[in-house]
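User: two proteins, same treatment. go.

Assistant:
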Amino acid sequence: MEKVIYVDHSATTYVKEEVIEEMLPYFNLKYGNASSVYSVGRKSRQAVDEARQKVADALNCGSDEIYFTAGGSESDNLIISGIARANREKGNHIITTKIEHLAVLNTCKKLEEEGFEVTYLDVNKHGLININDLQNAIKDSTILISIMFANNEIGTIQPIEEIGNIAKFKNVYFHTDAVQAIGNIKIDVKQMNIDALSLSGHKFYGPKGIGAAYIKKDIKFYPLIYGGHQEKNKRAGTENVPGIVGLGKAIEIANKNIDAYNEKLNMLRQYCIDKIFENISDVKLNGHPEKRLPGNINISIKGVEGESLLLMLDMNNICASSGSACTSGSLEPSHVLVAIGLGKDNAYGSLRFTFGEENTKEDVDYIVDKLTEIVNKLRLKG
């Protein structure tokens, strides 16, 4: 079988062997319900507590500030709607951006139906917010700012610490969707004045179906799921012990190896960008040229359609994407690319490569060779 080159790590990653090994006993040998009082259950509870501490250590927060969820989307929903509804007596105004993940945007739209007011900040051509726009948007009724750490499509990293400082000064809660940032950026929620944060295990070589929400102690929030007393009465449902264990192990490994990982991905990214621009004309890099995730490349190629590119790359055993996996079923151009000012033609012609630890320079050489052939072929047909 020919080698498949996978460059869509922003969509998902594989699960590392060390993570699988850590999880396996909790499927059959240590299968107890973590909420049970007998010994088999207590072993599961201990594993959950240890994983919770690993997540807390990675973020520099207390373990009692970590709540396990089914993934990043649930964490976004829990934090935004939970904090908004529980603190409505303080105000009804939320600030976010036009380039957030749909888990944030659609939650905000739902809250608007309930009478909340939402300000959607513009971004510049690189996908960065204007700090003055943020400051000017805050008013007496503002209770929450939700701005993603790094964009899942174009990779742009926001000035999170600066946003956190503003939120703290204005006495407004600050949430960041850090699903793409964990494993790529060192995060200290105390230093950055982050009050709430969302993350998902399958973005940093952990399992799918497990995520976590950091919510600063003493912040009042309502649950999304009602039932039992799990997760300190904030997230009902039997604990996914194998998933939680896997998440804990994955974030521990990611934090430990973050510098070497970033160095490799930065090298691959720049090598790939240089080769693309050397070999293909009329290419535009989307997102910030420097303030971006280490493994992210998002380009628009004039005269070609993104879906055709993807299909032909796939025929050559290259797995890439045109944007977020959560919007791949949509016929509309990416809301992120529209927000940074790309016309529909350029937005439809976008392509995203996101590298991971198994990728090599040889992979990049093969990708660029095939991409050049495909673009030339498609332009001739056009």
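Protein 2:
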Amino acid sequence: MKKILFLFLALSAVLVTACNDDEDTLPVRQGVSFAIESVNLTDAVTPVTLLFNGEVTASGFVTVSYTAIDLTYGTDFSTDVTAANGQLTLPFEAGAKQIQFNFTKLTDAMEGEVKNVVFTIEQISVSGIEITGNPSVQLNFNEMPSLGGPASPGVGGSNQPNQVYFDLSTGKYVSATRTAWDLGFYSGADFRVAINGSVAMAVKQLNTTNIDTPQTSDATVAIGTFDPANLAYVDNPNGFITNTAIAEVSANEADNKVYIVNMGYSVPTIPAAAGSVNVAGTQRGWKKIRILRNGDGYTLQYADIAATTHNTVTITKDAAYNFTFFSLINGATVQAEPVKAAWDLNFTTFTNEVFTTPGVSAGSYFYSDFVITNTKGGARSYQVLTSEVSYDNFKLANVNLNNLKTDVPQDHRAIGANWRNVTPLELYSDRFYIIQDPAGNVYKLRFTAMLSQAGDRGNPAFQYALLQ
């Protein structure tokens, strides 16, 4: 089941240094809105959030009514704010940015049943506050996919510290700090190990199997050097599992060589100027690794680059996940991605390929504001230009099914950084995206922001809708 988290609001290619550009200024209306249009209830208790567009200047309350389909208040569901006459009164203080109440699911829907509760904003006691977004939210007891709505994944601002995994069918997201993991051990049939491109890691194979031989760093094993040869040191940006920088782990132990590992960059803590990013902090140093097969899993040997001894750990495949993640810094497996059927898009920094001119590669390069599709988990996506059909007019009948086939590999950069530009800094309005989730639900999605209202990068927002 898809777990936790909360309901949320809607509100480049860059080097490791920042870009300075301006964002268009939008008028701000004083308003209140539910954070999302619908959500599937996967937990016993779910927080329901209303958000103000800006701080309110006076105390007051919002009256919310509810309509239940085949459900009874107090028997099938309850709220921590007691309902009276089919309504909740939700107080707020001057300066508040949100209101929240907890919804408790007391019973479950049986297979085939459609049960839901719809909460609707009816009254706002403070004059001048209007409904600026979703007037209602639908809480589904059954496994109906979310209808969509506005969303704002918490990338974390101009340092972009988080990798955010967004699930369209529930409207929920899970985030992990970019530095939480270093190696991803593939759970599928292949024996492959990915490196963490979100911190600009790189690896080089040595001509030895003895991990206890001291090694030295190699300045050529890095990204952003404008040398096409450095692509050999990073996972292919297309995301194909057969194109990892670390060779397939062989059943013949003697074929598995030692690698030196450039650990990339830490996440900086000093924010960038408005419109810029600061995504590469201090260098995290060097390690060395050797990986062997262990039955249907892996054995990892790892050490500091100049060490004469090493640590050993067994990594087990888990078919529920794309990868099992391991931290070389902490010496332990870690939770990063959700289960592979529970996310569709990953908002992250990214090691990509850059070109000097069309078709002429300049090697690997570090990008911000990147969006990866969960192709390994069965999701698919493609871009549509508004010159072909507008977002509002795009219907299920317009979907190109050839672009959503799951029996052929797909580049996970279908969205990538194509939704925005950094010179000049702008959000492209001439395109949107079609995403099919692992369950087969098809959504259309368009980006609505890449900056906060204060002009800070690392604040993407989008609108999406289920096609049915």
